Amino acid sequence: MAKQTDTIQNVVxxxxxxxxxxxxxxxxxxxxxxxxxxVIELPDLLMTGATPGEAVAELESVKREWIEEYLKLGNxxxxxxxxxxxxxxxxxxxxxxxxxxxxxxxxxxGVSFNQYMVSSLSKSVGRDEAxxxxxxxxxxx
Length: 141
Description:
Layout: H1 2-16, E1 22-28, E2 33-39, E3 46-49, H2 52-72, H3 96-109, H4 113-124, H5 129-140
Antiparallel strand pairs: 1-2, 2-3
Helix pairs in contact: 1-2, 3-4
């Protein structure tokens, strides 16, 4: 029996030490401000605290127990986002009318459909290269 417990603990330790992605969000429920820390790759693993650091500390304090229970339920642990391989190729199904509209807009902009999509997606996640270049130029003055 001790061997099985040792094995489970080794597996839990392995997963607990992987570089999972932790996010912290400021919340305001109308009664006060608090912070929620969560592991993006691990569903339902989240904790709250009065400060960002407290929320993360609470999360870390329950992570091993959460992983152990998750595994005991027969769930497969996901890999951390950082360790996954990304090809840069995305196959996306969209309505034909949206596809047509996007191609037209790309043509109007004078860029390829692919470049237009990359630019649009970059802007939507806050990675607009043109804006970053302007900010760097201003900072260098």
